[in-house]
Write a structure and sequence with these properties.
heterotrimer; A mainly alpha (291); B mainly alpha (288); C alpha/beta (241); A: 291 residues; mainly alpha; 2 strands; 71% helix; C: 241 residues; alpha/beta; Rossmann fold; six-stranded mixed sheet; globular
Amino acid sequence: MFAFVIHTAIIFTIFLMLAVGCNFIVGYGGLFTIGHGAFYALGAYAAGLLSTKLGLGFWPGLAAGGVVAAAVGGALAISLSTVDEDYFSLATFGFGIVTFTVLMNWFSVTNGALGIAGIPAPTLFGLEIESGVPYLALVVVAAVLCYGGVWLLIRSPFGRVLQAMRDEAAGVAACGRNVVWLKSVCFAIGSFIAGVAGVLYAHYATYIDPTSFTVEVSILSLSMAVVGGLGTLAGPLLGAVVVVLAPELLRFVDLPAGSAGLIRQGIYGGLLVLTLAIRPAGLLGRRTRGG
Amino acid sequence: MSSQILINGIVIGALYVMLALGFSMIYTSTGFFNLSHGAILLTGAYVSYAAGALWGLGFAASVVIGALAATAIHVVAAAGIYLPMRSRGASMWIMAIGSLGFAIVSQAAIGIVFGTRTLNIREGYVAPVLQVGEVRVSYIDVAIIAISVVLVTATHQFLQRTKTGIGIRAAMADRDMAQAVGIRVRSLELLVFAIGAFLAGTAGGLYALKGAIIYSMGGPALLKSIVVSILGIPFGLVGVFGGGIFLGVVENVVVANWSAGWVDGVSLLVLIVFVWLTAVRARVRKYR
Amino acid sequence: MSLLLEITELAAGYGGVSVLDGISIRVDSAETVGVIGANGAGKTTLLKSIMGFATVQGGGVAMDGADLHTRPVHDRARLGIAYVPEGARVFGELTVAENLEVGGYTTKSRAVLQERLDVVLDLFPVLRQRLSYKGNTLSGGQRQMLAVGRGLMAGASLLLLDEPSLGLAPLIVDELFAKLASIRELGTTILFVEQNAAKAFELADRVYVMSAGRIHLEGTPAQLMEDPSVAALYLGGESVD
């Protein structure tokens, strides 16, 4: 029971990081990505491959996973800079699915559906960070750093220009700012956080396969950000509680064994519909955009 | 490419065309990506299964009942959820996520009622096969192509020739101006939803008839709808038709030469390349 | 003359932003009324609030005695208001014939529609040659004529025109205003807003002068042309902008 609570807390915190990164890209940058899970996957696979094939340690892997995700994310945003908003979203969605397909089928590198096993637990000053409370501490510290980083960023001059661009891209461009660059840096930062979350997941699970990185992860990330309220600081936290934690709590309720998973799934969907139908701007959102 | 692969691709493509025509009509008239489009197909398939395998109705009646049930459910969702969301100022992607939530709910409901294992509507029944030279086509495949062509043509004629159809196209072109000439745009949007859901629901019933009913087939169906719509919308109905057949054939070539696992990736790659190459400024009405 | 449209103390804008600040206007049946004013005076917002596209914050609009406040846009069209927006906004993907048919969307009788179509095509012969062309292939002047024709197809009792001269060459403007004069002769009530004051004075029975969301003067063209401030602002050699 205690172990289960810790496990849930670790997964929750990792998903919270996805929500924070996604909210940064969508809520503050105005770039509606539906491919956030791809960068989570890139981080996890980078860490998994580097540690099992090259014997690289956790910390270099953490940096590498974040940087790989950020670099690919930045490049994707640049290459899509001329595309209409709707198509931008679609292309990110497509990117998520292509990434999944590659993980599944590029057998010689990713080991396909068999996945990568034996990813070692991280060490700190020579001591192993054990699964359980120590690992929870690690992910909480990482999540707090990411949350704090975003908090600082949105108050910085860069953050203010970013939000101005979200609201009026043409105006910001007319002020001589490079909008393409702004967008890609924003996308890269959000992807970096997703990549770090992926590394943390890989070293926690010690085994990764493509089924943990389906398009549903992208949609879950987005749902958390949207339900909480795009472009609000506390939004991702609240969104993660509603979308991830609430269905999880149903484990403590007696449900018919055969369809318990389906009922949880239905409730997740129902919460999503209900929240957005009642508050289209999310629980904390004060205003609606594009409407 | 053998002609057998080509014909298999065309049959699948004919289903994609029905899916994508509905999806793109809903997108161009209501301005949002209806991410429950795959769930419409799923509903059509399972209700057809219930009608055919459980209540013992004929194939044709089963497909029609499946399509009508799917239409009813999703028109209610549109009237009760999506359009009210828009009135409250939800942006197009927020509406899309709302529709995704509805898709998740309806998929879970289907799973609870029917279970999640693969079902077969025509247990023990083998459809007669038409043999032309080297190529074998089952009568069901022939029916799929015929029904697809008839429904798509009928939809096209409705949009082009009738007053209501012209009103729908006017609303697609300029929603506010259409209201200003007295069109009840909201009712027409619901009508478009009904047409789109009927097309997708029929595709679901036909898909069930063609092969097995797989619980997870809603997601891939949604993907095909999106890919074909994006390929097709800038070129109108002909584009949607051509896009559907093209995707069906490409997928069958991929399956024949490489492996089935690459199919979704390839179709999305087709989409990304298309978006990249053209940076489509689609001539669809931008969402306001 | 009977009162057709009555606007009383109208305050309106978009969302929380206020553009109109207590405007009162009346239009009688078979009258042609112009509203002139510089860019940003609120002329377009005035027509949009009549049609239901702006947020009304105070006051009211009544058509034939019926309060329009809670009515959706399509209902107002059905009450007999036809709207020709700024830049015409013809349905680009529809043919000219289809644009005209959509204009008469609320009319059921085929015979009545055919009658109106004949009137419109006699008025704008250029449209007759273009019936099967798409709206987005027309020139600016043709679009404006199609938009007016689309409005006439509704058989509306009140025609609202937003800046009909905008973006058109002087010769085309002359032609268009000649057409509008003939529409006036047909007995249609017209309320139009226009930046081109000279043209507005030619066409209108009565003119309101608007600036910064308020009505400043009202009178017949002859009265207003006497007014030194109008002459200096709107008819003088100096440009308004």
